[in-house]
């Protein structure tokens, strides 16, 4: 959520170049786990309904693109190595950009550079 404004600028600036999608995965900083002091009060998801409920908080912040929810088996997070967060750019079914693992490797500016080249 901390970098959501940067992500929203990407979506707004490149919606004619790319389709954007957020996959909500397991909560990285749950209240009952490794939490930050200024974080949302979200416990680690024990059911799909809990994960959906947590994802609705993100949807209320209007990320400007669809939000889908990973399965409780964390299939998407495992496949894309995205816990706690990661940015990708795919073109024609192939990965053309794989960002570093967040939070330190999360770089909307790198995605911006990739998308500028695809324009």
UniProtKB/TrEMBL annotation:
Keywords: Oxidoreductase, Selenocysteine, Thyroid hormones biosynthesis
GO molecular function: thyroxine 5'-deiodinase activity
Coiled coil (UniProt feature): none
Reactions listed under catalytic activity: 3-iodo-L-thyronine + iodide + A + H(+) = 3,3'-diiodo-L-thyronine + AH2; 3,3'-diiodo-L-thyronine sulfate + iodide + A + H(+) = 3,3',5-triiodo-L-thyronine sulfate + AH2; 3,3'-diiodothyronamine + iodide + A + H(+) = 3,3',5'-triiodothyronamine + AH2; 3-iodothyronamine + iodide + A + H(+) = 3,3'-diiodothyronamine + AH2
InterPro entries reported for this sequence: Iodothyronine_deiodinase
GO biological process terms on file: hormone biosynthetic process; regulation of neural retina development; thyroid hormone catabolic process
Family: Belongs to the iodothyronine deiodinase family.
Described purpose of this protein according to its UniProt entry: Responsible for the deiodination of T4 (3,5,3',5'-tetraiodothyronine).
Protein name: Iodothyronine deiodinase
Organism: Oryzias latipes (Japanese rice fish)
């Amino acid at each position: 959520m901390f970098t959501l404004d940067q992500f929203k600028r990407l979506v707004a600036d490149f919606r004619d170049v790319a389709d954007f999608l957020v996959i909500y995965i397991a909560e990285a900083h749950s209240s009952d786990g490794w939490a930050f002091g200024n974080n949302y009060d979200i416990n680690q998801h024990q059911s799909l309904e809990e994960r959906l409920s947590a994802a609705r908080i993100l949807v209320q912040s209007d990320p400007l693109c669809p939000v889908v929810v990973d399965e409780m088996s964390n299939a998407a997070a495992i496949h894309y190595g995205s816990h706690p967060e990661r940015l990708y750019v795919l073109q024609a079914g192939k990965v053309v950009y794989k960002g570093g693992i967040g939070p330190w490797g999360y770089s909307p500016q790198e995605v911006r550079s990739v998308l500028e080249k695809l324009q």
